[in-house]
Amino acid sequence: MRRRFPNAALDEQEAYEATSLRAHGSRRPVARVLHWKPGIRPKAGWDSEGTHFDSPASVSLLEESTVAVNRPMMGVFNNLVMFKQDVSQNSLNAIVPDLATGWTLNEEETELTLPLRQGVKWHDGRPFTANDVKCTWDLLAGKTSEKLRINPRKGWYSDLEEVTTKGDYEVTFI
């Protein structure tokens, strides 16, 4: 029996046939592609299904380092900065603000200060602040009593002396 997705222009079989991404040449789609009817959006509580080529231990970008987690979860989480998607990514000009609104370096180039976007909220409605950034980076650098299950990138941050905050919407990496 073909299942029709609520408010979708394609049913499951049509979505399967329209999907261009295939897992290792198999007939199984990596992701189902649904095209919504004009003017209609998914309703709250609607579930989406899809298959994935792996079953990672977690979906934590902090604790995992494989594409099995990074690819699907990068669309879920924001970054302080990111690569501009329409230019070659081999220059500083390709880096653009995301949760940060910009950045400045001090004269000695030993401190990087990022003002943060205001009005950003977590899934539970709490505001995103500089303290959240500091907490995350202190956790990554291993400077908190709480520890990650695994920390595959800890060595990347050995030159990071500390992260400081100035108010709720400014963070400095020293």
Please tag this protein with its features:
174 residues; little secondary structure; Dipeptide-binding Protein, domain 1; 2 domains; 15% helix; globular
Explain the layout of strands and helices.
Blueprint: H1 12-18, H2 67-74, E1 81-83, E2 95-97, E3 104-105, E4 112-115, H3 130-140, E5 163-165, E6 170-173
Antiparallel strand pairs: 1-2, 3-4, 4-6, 5-6
Describe this structure in words.
- By secondary structure, the protein is low in regular secondary structure.
- It folds into 2 domains: 1-53, no CATH class; 81-173, Dipeptide-binding Protein, domain 1 (Alpha-Beta Complex).
- Helices cover 15% and strands 11% of the residues.
- It has 3 helices and 6 strands.
- The strands form 2 sheets. Strands 3-4-6-5 form a 4-stranded antiparallel β-sheet, with helices on one face. The protein has a two-stranded antiparallel sheet with strand order 1-2.
- Mean pLDDT is 76; it is low at 1-37.
CATH topology of the largest domain: Dipeptide-binding Protein, domain 1
Which range does the strand content fall in?
A: 5-15%
CATH top level of the largest domain is Alpha Beta
**Largest β-sheet summary:** 4 strands, antiparallel
Order of helices and strands: HHEEEEHEE
The 3D shape can be described as: globular
Oligomer: single chain
Structural class: little secondary structure
Q: Could you give the distance between the termini?
A: 60 Å
Estimate nothing, just give the exact number of structural domains. 2
CA-based gyration radius: 20 Å
What percent of the residues sit in helical stretches (DSSP H or I)? 10-25%
Mean pLDDT, to the nearest integer, reads 76
- CATH homologous superfamily of the largest domain - what is it? Dipeptide-binding Protein, Domain 1
Kindly state the number of beta strands.
6
The total count of helices amounts to 3
> Strand order within the widest sheet?
3-4-6-5
Q: Just name the CATH architecture of the largest domain.
A: Alpha-Beta Complex
Low-confidence runs of at least 5 consecutive residues: 1-37
